[in-house]
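User: I'll paste a sequence; please echo it back and then give the predicted structure.

Assistant: Echoing your sequence first, then the prediction.
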Amino acid sequence: MKLAGFYLIALLSVCQLNSHAQDLKIPDPSSGQRIEQDFGLGTISISYNRPNVKGRKILGSIEPYGIVWRTGANGATKIRLTDSVKIEGHWLAPGRYAFFTIPGATEYTVIFNNVPDQWGAYAYDSTKDALRFKIKPVKLDKKLETLTYQFANVITDQQCDFQVAWENTLLSMHLETDVDARVMANIAQAMQGDNKPYYKAAIYYYNHSKDMKQALAWIEEVEKKQPDAYNVKYWKAKIQLKGGDKQGAIKTANEGLKQAQAEPNVEYIRMNTEVIEAAGK
């Protein structure tokens, strides 16, 4: 009985040690990163782990050409779309995906797989692919130590570049989304309600080169309720300028400039001044 008691105590001690080991928090050699980009009417979220070069030869060596790669470390890189996105000309529906690549010396295969929660690429199943296409890599002039996902060239709310870079290689994929028809329908519907979105609608019309007369009518509705708002004067002046009314733009921007100076608000002093200078050319 005493011996049995000894073994029981020993077993409990081992279990306790294992429990403490599982609770131990230490930094992951490949740190995690989560990034999110607003795009169109939705968002694109990426969750991945970031390995480092550490003086090694990576692509074409540790990560061989022709083999499916998790394009990160630890679990598969996860990408979540809340709206449809066109990637290099291919539409991808909203959802959660695992992101893989097959590296090559002159060409990469890019893969979005329908099984987001998997470890590495060990259980990768090509029959579960949602999208697969090829892309040419770009050689970087300077070595990048840490694997990096990023969104670049977000010039409009409907176009940007999704990029993956590591060592001396950059993959850049062009993204597009077509939401204009949906936004225009949303604006038309909202204008039938009691809380009409005059300000946002006017700015959307300006940014997307719609009907400037309509945009001006909407921003003037906002101006009636907020006559001393320099941000409203600024947008009214920009709309007037884009609609060809330079003198009207100068007058409105000067009003906005005086209001911004009275606070003072440096940002709107600068922006209203820029409108005045642009209208004077």
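The mean pLDDT is 92. The beta strands are 31-39, 42-50, 77-81, 85-87, 90-92, 95-102, 108-113, 129-135, 138-156, 159-176.
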